[in-house]
Design brief:
The chain folds into 2 domains: about 100 residues, Leucine Dehydrogenase, chain A, domain 1 (Rossmann fold), CATH 3.40.50.10860; about 120 residues, Rossmann fold, CATH 3.40.50.720. The chain contains 10 helices and 11 strands. α2 links the parallel β2 and β3. With about 280 residues, the chain is of the alpha/beta class. The structure holds NADP nicotinamide-adenine-dinucleotide phosphate. NADP nicotinamide-adenine-dinucleotide phosphate binds next to α10. The site of NADP nicotinamide-adenine-dinucleotide phosphate has 26 residues, from α10.
Length: about 280
């Protein structure tokens, strides 16, 4: 039995084809959609995430406005910008790219964004809705993982899913979304004992640890479906958290890095946008 390679680009293209008429319909009446991204300093990973978001939004004819503040910027200056964007009728989405400098309390900063413009699900309001099971935007990577699994034809209801990682932007919201899908969820982290036992017992393993090639073949069985969220650089090359070369032929299905979850994540921001604008559910 050969294993299935899950192609993120194809999944992303199919979501794009569903969302394009929705956005086109809105723009066709002369209305505008602008998205604001606030970021600090010149962090290379933030800049590369922003570039990929710009590319995605451009495909839909959506304009991105970048607001780059020096790392030493005072709180009041950034808050003023967020307040301006909150009341700008053409601005339909506000994102704040990590890392945020130390003088800011992240929660305080995110709380300033109007929930109706929170396309990255940063605000406590939208995060609370997610926790309580109400509709709304969801953290894009977590939402993308669900799309990748379902659109690859795999069931989530009644399945055992192990998530490696419990961050606020990936592992934790993903666990909530998986519960919504009726999966039985195990969430692992650095204090988890006997990680291979937890991953081997699962039908689906989602790895989001941020450690290059952390999980080798001993963490999986031949029926495992492996979703690798990790984006790491090792010896100048992009790689995931799973040792792909040694694992890919020994499991039922796997996402590559690059080309797996990544391409679906940025398209998911458009999905969040349409949800917030009341254009889709
Ligand atoms: P993070 O905030 O550093 O969280 C990593 C999580 O993994 C933590 O919960 C940590 O446990 C756990 N962990 C780390 N090493 C572990 C180990 N040896 N065994 C078990 N658990 C371990 O990272 P993140 O923001 O969630 O991102 C994770 C990865 O996803 C990164 O590579 C990032 O670049 C990538 N990412 C990809 C996308 C995409 O679109 N594909 C989007 C966002 C992030 P503790 O809580 O105990 O520390």
């Amino acid at each position: 039995m050969s294993s299935q390679l899950i192609k993120g680009k194809e999944i992303s293209a199919s979501i794009q084809s569903e969302l394009t008429p929705v956005i086109e319909g809105y723009l066709s009446s002369g209305r505008k959609i602008n998205i604001a991204i606030i970021y600090f300093g010149n962090d290379p990973s933030a800049e590369s995430y922003i570039k990929s978001k710009e590319k995605t939004f451009k495909k839909f004819g959506i304009a991105i406005n970048l607001f780059n503040f020096p790392e030493t910027t005072e709180k009041a200056t950034v808050l003023k910008k967020i307040h301006e964007l909150n009341t700008d009728p053409d601005c339909k989405g506000i994102m704040i790219e990590m890392p945020v400098p130390g003088q800011f309390d992240k929660l305080e900063l995110f709380s300033e964004i109007y929930p109706s413009k929170d396309i990255d699900c940063l605000t406590p309001y939208n995060y609370g809705r997610l926790l309580l099971g109400y509709p709304g935007p969801v953290p894009a990577t977590a939402g993308a993982v669900i799309e990748v699994i379902k659109r690859s034809g795999f069931e989530l209801s009644g399945k055992n899913v192990t998530v490696v990682g419990r961050s606020n932007i990936v592992g934790k919201p993903l666990a909530l979304l998986l519960l919504r899908e009726n999966s039985t969820v195990t969430v692992c982290h650095t204090k988890t004992k006997n990680l291979p036992e937890k991953t081997k017992q699962a039908d689906i393993v989602v790895v989001s640890a941020g450690k290059p090639k952390l999980l080798g073949e001993e963490y999986f069985r031949k029926e495992s479906i492996v979703i690798d969220v990790g984006i790491n650089f090792l010896e100048g090359k992009l790689c995931g958290d799973v040792d792909y070369d040694n694992v890919s032929e020994k499991v039922k299905a796997i996402t590559p890095v690059p080309g797996g979850v990544g391409p679906v994540t940025s398209i998911f921001l458009i999905k969040n946008l349409t949800v917030l604008m009341g254009l889709s559910k």
